[in-house]
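agent> Task received from the user: take the single chain below, predict its 3D structure, and emit structure tokens. No templates, no multimer pairing.
agent> Plan: (1) validate residues, (2) run structure prediction, (3) serialize to tokens, (4) report one or two observations.
agent> Step 1 OK, no nonstandard residues flagged.
tool_call: predict_structure(input=
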Amino acid sequence: MLDVAMGERTTPRDFMAQAGAGESFSFLKSIIDPEPTVQKLKHTLMGEEWDNKKEEWVRIVVGYNDDNTPIYSQPVLNHKGIQGVMIEVVRVSKDINLSNFTQEEINLTLRHFGIVLNDELYENLEEWGAEVKDFSKIHLLIFDLVASAYKRSLSEGERNLLKPSIEGGVKEIHDDKHQPSLRERIGLGGR
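)
tool_result: status=success, residues=191
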């Protein structure tokens, strides 16, 4: 029987973990988890990229001086700016990816988000250490990330990935383990 208390809100992770679907869940999580994309945005704004050989974030080399020393990209925002952007990107979450939006809802939400993001960047441009020439690049990096998350939720998008695993896990729980009915739990007899 599931160890989840009655009335407690459960997640696909609860069902899958208790159904022994840990490996499947890890694979699905790696596909739908927005965290790596959010981290990539953060590091891009910091002028960094992932180095597979070193297995760490490194400064982006944009050229070389005459003496062959590397020229590194500069962050497009200061620390306060990156924090401000990350607050805006909080909208990119598992809740959005696993939602069910219509195209009309996505368009309306993204239109509103684009306006708010534009205002937020414009109002904080100087304080966040950004240059006017980088405004469009910063805006597009953030907007594209959020738009992608919303588009992944179109017509149940990623929820459809999870349905077979969740349904299979729940069926396995029901098939393999006797779950007492309410009557049995309170001592009134069988199913």
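agent> Step 4: summary for the user.
Residues 77-176 form one domain.
agent> Done.
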